[in-house]
Amino acid sequence: MCRATEAAAAAVAPFSGTPLSVMAGGNVATLRTAAAHWPTRAAGSAPLQQVPRGMRQLSGSAASAGGSERSDGRGDDADGREDFRMHVRDFARKVIAPHAADIDRNNAFPEAVDLWAEMGAFGLLGVTAPTEYGGLGLGYAEHCIAMEEISAASGSVGLSYGAHSNLCVNQLVRNATATQKERYLPGLLTGGAIGALAMSEVGAGSDVCSMRLRAARAPGGGGYLLNGSKFWITNGPRASTLIVYAKTEPDLGDKGITAFIIEKGMKGFSTAQKLDKLGMRGSDTCELVFENCEVPDENVLGNVNDGVAVMMSGLDYERLVLAAGPVGLMQAAMDVALPYATQRKQFGKPIGEFQLVQGKLADMYTRMASSRAFVYKVAADADAGHSGQQLRRDCASAILLAAENATHVTLDAIQVLGGNGYISEYPTGRLLRDAKLYEIGAGTSEIRRFLIGRELVREATAAGGR
After folding, report:
1. What is the CA radius of gyration of the chain?
2. Spans of biased composition, class Basic and acidic residues (predicted)?
C-alpha cells in the first residue's frame, strides 16, 4: 500500500482537533499563538480527494502533492492566516473528504456522520459571526479560506456550507435585530439548524426583482401571508431557517420587496421536489412552496419594502466567499493531476516528463494561483472596509475569474488522466460537474460581465466629468 493510500485510509478516523472557536477568541494573533496545540497536517499526507482504487497500483510518494508543502501559490503566512488554513484543511481532509465520492454517488450527505454538527463543533459555521453568539468574529479572508478548504474536500459540502454560513448566517449578522440574532444565530452556529437563502423563482432568476412571491398583510393587520414559490434553493429540503424575499408592494417594483425570516414548520410553508442536479449532488436543492404561509411581523428582516437593501448589503460578500469554492475545486484537481502525471508511465517514462503535459499543468497552476490571489486581494479589501462600486465590481470579477478558470482546470485534469479521467472511479468528472455550477449560481457569468462592465463605465464617466 502506497503512503497516499495509507493516509487516505487513516482519514476516516474520528476527528479530535481542538475547535477553532476555542483557539480563535476572535483574534487571529491568538489563533497563531495557540497553533502549537493543534494537530497538524503532516507533509506527505494524502491529497484532499480520497485516492481512487485504480491509483493504488502506482508506486512512489508523489501522490503526496496535496500535503502541506504542495505547490499551491498560497501566501497565507504573509497575512498570519496559515495556521487557520492548515487546521481547517486538516478538519476537511479527515471529516469531509472521505465521504465526497459517496455524497456525489448517493446525492445525499452521509447518514453515519452529521457533517453539520461536526462543522459547528469545530467552529466553521460562524466565521464572521460575533463571538457573543458563538461565532469566531473573524473576517472574509478567513471565511474564504474555510470555503476553499471545504470545497477542496467536497464541492457539494462546500456549496451547502457557503449557503448556510454566508448567504444565511452572514446576512443575519449584517441585518437582523438583536432579538433575531439571539433567536436564530446560536442554533445556526452549532449546526443544530441549517440555513438557506431564497431569491430565485422559476420566472425570476437573473431578473430577481421580477419575483412573484407575494407577501400580503394578514386579515386584521397582524403579520403577513405569503403565497407563491421559490426555486433552485440550496439547502432547501433540510433548512430550518431561511431568508426569503417577497413582494409586499408589487406596484413599487424593486422598492416593494421585503426580506423575511422563514422557519421550517410555519403553517403554509412546505418544500416540493428535490432537484436531481448534474453536479453538486448531495447539496440539496428544491422548490419552496408558500400557501397562505403565516409570518409574524417580528420575522421581517430589515425594513418593510427595503428588501433590496438587505439583499444588496450581502450580495457582494456572497460572491466573494463563494468565489473561494472554485479555487478549492481547482486545488483538488491539481491534487489529482500532479501525482498522476509523475507516476503514470507511457513510452517508458512518467507522462509528466512530456512537455505537452507540463504545459497543461502549468496552465492549470497559473489559472488556480491567479484566481486565488485575486480572491484574497478582494477579501483583504472587504476586511479593510472597502465598499461601494469598486468592491461590487471586484467581487463580481473574483467569482467570474475563479468560476471560469475552475471549469478549464477541471477539464484539463480530465485530459491529464486520459481514459482514467473519464471514469467515475477517479474524482475528476465530479470536480468538473461541481465546477460548472459556479458559472451559473450566484449570478451567471453573463450577469457578472454586465455588472463589471457597467461599473467600469460609471467610473470612467465620473472620472471624465472631473
Report:
1. 22
2. 69-81
Per the document, the length of the chain is 466
b (16+ CB within 10 A) / e for 382-394: bbeeeeeeebbbb
Nearest to 396 by CA among 451, 435, 436: 451
- Residue 268 DSSP SS3: coil
> What per-residue string of b and e applies to 345-367 under the rule 16 or more CB within 10 Å gives b?
eeeeebbbeeeebeebbeebbeb
Closest CA to 290 of 240, 246, 239: 246
Helix, strand, or coil (residue 260): strand
Binding region for substrate: 206, 316-319, 442-443
**Cβ pair 55, 66 in contact under 8 A:** no
Please give the single-letter amino acid code of residue 174: R
pTM of the predicted model as reported, rounded to 2 decimal places: 0.86
CA nearest to 367, candidates 62, 73, 68, 153: 73
Q: Which of 77-81, 197-201, 313-317 has the lowest mean pLDDT?
A: 77-81
Last residue of a domain, one of 305, 336, 359: 305
In this structure, what are the phi and psi dihedrals at residue 121, rounded to the nearest 5 degrees?
Answer: -65, -30
Which domain-ending residue is among 177, 193, 209?
193
Q: List the CATH number of the domain containing 269.
A: 2.40.110.10
In the chain, pLDDT over 70 holds for what percent of residues?
Answer: 82
Annotated binding site: 197-206, 232-234, 316-319, 344, 355, 415-419, 442-446
Print the domain residue range for 260. Answer: 197-305
H or E element at residue 230: strand 224-234
Do 322 and 460 lie in one domain? The reply is yes
CB 72 within 8 A of CB 47: no
- Active-site positions read 318
